[in-house]
Amino acid sequence: MGDLLRLATAGSVDDGKSTLVGRLLYDTKSVLADQLDAVHRASVDKGLSTPDLSLLVDGLRSEREQGITIDVAYRYFATPRRTFVLADTPGHVQYTRNTVTGASTAQLAILLVDARKGVVEQTRRHAAVLALLGVPRLVLAVNKIDLTEYDQGTFEVIAKEFATYAAALGYTSDTVRTIPVSALVGDNVVDVSDRTPWYTGPTLLEHLETVPVEPDPHEAPFRFPVQYVIRPRTPEHPDYRGYAGQVAAGTVRLGEEVVVLPGGSRTRVARIDTRDGELAEAVAGASVTLLLEHEIDISRGDLLAAADDPPVLTDELDATLAWLADKPLRPGARVLVKHGARTVPAIVGELRTRFDEQKLSTTEYPESLALNEIGQVSVRTAEPVPVDEYRTHGRTGAFLVIDPGDGTTLAAGLVGAPLPVLGTS
Amino acid sequence: MTVTADRTTAPRTLTLDALGRLESEAIHIMREVAGEFDRPVILFSGGKDSTVLLHLAVKAFWPAPVPFPLLHVDTGHNFDEVIEFRDRVVARYGLRLVVARVQDWIDDGRLAERPDGTRNPLQTVPLLDTIGEHRFDAVFGGGRRDEERARAKERIFSLRNAFGQWEPRRQRPELWNLYNGRHRPGEHVRVFPLSNWTELDVWRYIAREDIELPSIYYAHEREVYLRDGMWLTAGPWGGPREGETVERRTVRYRTVGDGSCTGAVASTASTLDEVIAEVGASRLTERGATRADDRLSEAAMEDRKREGYF
């Protein structure tokens, strides 16, 4: 078993995302016989002459009825070279929040465009969201190339336009790959097409199998949100007091000095515990239990961090929000902020800028942020929170904005300004 | 977790492979629930997925005991081996087990037996009633996204309204690994720590952690009869109809559910390694191979989930 790549699809409605994912699954033989039978039966019932591969992923009745994707579908497949976790996300503008869900953990995104339409509004919106979330690599799949008679010129115009746009969002040319495909017919998805002799690059799957995967942040300064205090109080463990959590960044080692935030006390790591035995060190991504040298009052929501490189403790966050709720955000809104394992009341102060991903410009001091809009804001929290910049520390620079009334997730919050600075309009 | 260093020289260094990542993610999810909810419960049937779930809970809170009770919705159509296993595991970890018996609901008229005798769809009402009665606010399930295409759409934290219903068009965004467990009184959250596991991952993990399972997951001889392409076994839920003949075959179960609609597969895989090889080579999904209830319609699972099923 090789390594793992988490990827998401994005792009406008009807660009053929679900068909492309169906094609990837089908051509890599990741679809099992009973699933395929069901798709063949349903396609015949719909009067189609070839199987509709989108039926493999559009799992909801209303999706199949309307022929669109409404929510993220997660699929798992593997080739001898790599294991893939794929989030197939909706293209419809109304469901952009589900695209954000699928892309928030992706290491690569496949952005589809229809070769006949080129880069459209939703392509730019999704690319901006991917850039904001820091998805490190993009593939622009120019789909339905069969419907342009495999025209090289059409492909190149689209590739060039997108390269310029992606560069403005901060994507360097080595992080973006453009591939002409037909998901319906299968050109350049898994198998090389002989109808695009002018294209000499890899097929989509070949690229997914060989693209470098960003390593976990093992070298970053240590961060550990305390999720739960383990106190057995049993005859065998009368005085055990362990702090359970997942290493968010860096590596924790025995004896290392840590600072407890927001309190500020310092102590050392006395033991790194798991049920399988004690450890000398634990890396980013590991769920462990830490025991500390000194008895300090620590509870869920506190953050343990490298004492020599701690995060900033602040109750005034400068942040960027991707607004995901139907009702717009206005200055003065009372919300909850969930950061790490801590949830605190907060008030949104000023709306400083709103990002216009279509014109690549910003509006200063907008009145509101509406559904799917991105903007910079100031957030005042009821208690200080230990934060890092999202761009350098994804896990401790991210937070949720939650409605205190009904508990809805209102926005994806990112500390700092992860998007490039743009001119104002 | 995978430990790569020499086992004799503690302490060791921990590195994460694919299974280690899945384990760590599941433990993180369970600890979030323990930290944020008042009355969580683990759905436990004695099947392989819920047994893995319980194993992960033991690891997540060790050396403290698992801070959740277990809930089994008992259709009455059980395999004896599974109930015996269930009770043994509960005793081993000293846990509290709540059993909701579908039969009790049928006896007092809150539910009616279906004409086809299948009780899988009847589990929803006892499940929701019991969640309400005990005021459980977080309910762990062993569901995985690779099982079925409606399940592929499920969040890890999945909000259910006061009627226990899943509203697929109103799911919350789920960002990074920040889970939002807020809910209003009467609502509850279904939590799926194994969301990102595949059937093969579950088996590989069972092998690596040496987890005991009910014996019917391994090949054994059994009296079975063929219906709708599945090998069913006779039991209190009924037996062969006219024209169906009972044969003695070597089979195993890929899933464990209501006896009336869970089929066995022809198999000689009697060890973990043989099961892993068989699952890896299978051309059928586990539900396609063994669950009559999922064959009822194109959207059988989605419809049951909307009503509040697991």
Automatic annotation (TrEMBL), chain A:
Transmembrane segments: none annotated. Its EC number is 2.7.7.4. It is an enzyme of class 2 (transferase). GO terms for molecular function: ATP binding; GTP binding; GTPase activity; sulfate adenylyltransferase (ATP) activity. This is sulfate adenylyltransferase. The keyword RNA-binding does not apply. NCBIfam families: CysN (TIGR02034). The lineage of its organism: Bacteria, Bacillati, Actinomycetota, Actinomycetes, Pseudonocardiales. Gene3D superfamilies: P-loop containing nucleotide triphosphate hydrolases (3.40.50.300), Translation factors (2.40.30.10). It comes from Actinophytocola xanthii.
UniProtKB/TrEMBL annotation, chain B:
Gene3D superfamilies: HUPs. InterPro entries: PAPS_reduct_dom, Rossmann-like_a/b/a_fold, SO4_adenylTrfase_ssu, Sulfate_adenylyltrnsfr_sub2. Pfam families: PAPS_reduct. Residues 290-310 are annotated as: Disordered. Residues 40-263 form the Phosphoadenosine phosphosulphate reductase domain. SUPFAM superfamilies: Adenine nucleotide alpha hydrolases-like. Its EC number is 2.7.7.4. It comes from the Bacteria. Keywords: ATP-binding, Nucleotide-binding, Nucleotidyltransferase, Transferase. GO terms for biological process: sulfate assimilation. Belongs to the PAPS reductase family. CysD subfamily. This is Sulfate adenylyltransferase subunit 2. The lineage of its organism: Bacteria, Bacillati, Actinomycetota, Actinomycetes, Pseudonocardiales.
